[in-house]
Design brief:
about 425 residues, alpha+beta, seven-stranded mixed sheet, five-stranded mixed sheet, about 30% strand, binds adenosine-5'-triphosphate
Length: about 425
């Protein structure tokens, strides 16, 4: 958290006014990192697959959506207060009957709806209530017919969406892990009911692998299947991808076989049919639903490394090059011509294609350390030799190994590292 603040990755929201509990702002490097997480997901889900298309639906929706989905009645947590210390708990997280903090008496559990309510228009009354969506999935379900009618999709196919969601959580916390406002990446994959189990199995494996491929330590990732007895009535199966955070194993993403519940509910409440093909099948839905902020936090936590180098502590964010906010730093070894001119030219060339930084302030050691802390995978240094041999030294963030490569091949070098 200290590094995130110091290096401009994540700041407490509204900090000059004392902050606003459980809301966070992404700083200059944080926004690049989070955009890269979203881009990696979008590329893998939408761009690289011919069976998945994208969508961007509105946050505010007709309140009937939440009636049909069950959120108005079911999207609740049991709220329990301690009569003595006034601390608030989620009922299902408590084991005993006394307050775990002070041993005081607890109130009976009250069901508390997690949706943020607002009003549309100037007058607040019950006719113009609207909700901030608590998940992006419903925007996909209500557009199912539009997508089927306007494109040439055939089962199995998916609709993917990234967007903000809001939950009035009873017990938020653990930095950006559980917040009131967050982003989700959700895929609704529509399948023939007879293929649902096979597709569910395939998606659980694919989603676990996605985090591994982006560099997360395999030993800190696992899939946990929910017991049948704990499933919502419509769910056939649910597995979570979990990461071992410093505060324990916690969910990054849930993969669910949701049966045909969602489409059938919306068909019932809207009167529109929600079927595909000659056989008029109501597809089953396999839903991998993840949190962008949680994934970003896991990538950050996993990448954070402190190591001893020549008696000093080196702090490194060993992020996958695809996720690193800055892909390369261009560092002239001396502040003299023509070294500076060559370095600036390389910088101007590269920034057309990549987020790169130019830095000529302080010792090269200090400049490396700064880039290590924000996770920049490569540093290119330009020196007097460059003038004659038209080559630069590239220094690898993780191994700190250095090699000399032609200046004309730098862009290609980066391109290769960012696509593998
Ligand atoms: P949890 O059990 O942690 O509350 P959930 O099972 O309610 O999560 P889902 O409704 O399945 O979560 O939402 C899908 C994903 O959205 C979660 O896996 C998580 O990554 C993200 N998410 C949900 N709630 C929050 C939140 N309050 N803050 C940040 N991310 C969230």
């Amino acid at each position: 958290m200290a590094l995130c603040k110091r290096r401009g990755l994540i700041f407490p929201s509204s900090e000059i006014y004392g902050g606003f509990a459980n809301t966070w702002d992404y700083g200059p490097y944080g926004v690049l990192l989070k955009n890269n997480v979203k881009q990696a997901w979008w590329t893998d889900m939408v761009q690289k697959r011919s069976d998945i298309i994208g969508l961007d639906s509105a946050i505010l929706m007709n309140p009937k959506v939440w009636e049909a989905s069950g959120h108005l009645t079911e999207f609740t947590d049991p709220l329990v207060d301690c009569k003595k210390c006034k601390k608030r708990f989620k009922g299902d997280a408590l084991t005993g009957t006394a307050c775990p903090e002070c041993g005081g008496d607890l109130t009976a559990a009250k069901q508390f709806n997690l949706m943020f309510k607002t009003n549309v228009g100037p007058v607040e009354d019950s006719d113009n209530v609207a909700y901030l969506r608590p998940e992006t999935a419903q925007g996909i379900f209500v557009n199912f017919k539009n997508v089927v009618d306007s494109t040439r999709v055939k089962l199995p196919f998916g609709i993917a969406q990234i967007g903000k969601a809001f939950r009035n959580e009873i017990t938020p916390g653990n930095f950006t892990f559980r917040t009131l406002e967050f982003e989700q990446f959700e895929l609704e994959y529509f399948v023939n009911p007879k293929d649902a189990d096979k597709q569910y199995q395939a998606w659980t494996k694919a989603r676990l692998k996605w985090y591994e491929d982006l560099g997360i330590d395999k030993k800190k990732l696992r899939l946990t299947e929910h017991p049948k007895s704990a499933l919502a009535h419509y769910a056939q199966a649910v597995s979570d991808v979990e990461y071992e955070f410093p505060f324990g194993w916690s969910e990054l993403e849930g993969i669910a076989n949701r049966s045909d519940y969602d489409l059938k509910q919306h068909a019932k409440f809207s009167g529109e049919d929600m079927v595909v093909g000659e056989e008029k099948i109501t597809p089953y839905i396999i839903e991998p639903s993840g949190g962008v902020d949680r994934a970003t936090l896991a990538f950050l936590v996993d990448a954070y490394t402190e190591e001893e180098v020549k008696g000093e502590t080196r702090t490194v964010l060993a992020l996958h090059p695809k996720l690193a906010p800055i892909k390369a730093a261009i560092l002239p070894l001396v502040k003299k011509e023509p070294v500076v001119e060559i370095a600036k030219k390389l910088y101007e060339e590269l920034r057309k294609e990549f987020f790169v930084e130019y830095d000529d302030g302080g010792t090269v050691g200090k400049r490396y350390r700064r880039q290590d802390e924000i996770g920049t995978p490569y540093c290119f240094t330009i020196d007097f030799e460059t003038v004659d041999d038209k080559a630069v030294t590239v220094r690898d963030r993780d191994s700190m190994a250095q090699e000399r490569i032609p200046i004309s091949s730098v862009a290609e070098f980066l391109r290769k590292k960012l696509t593998t």
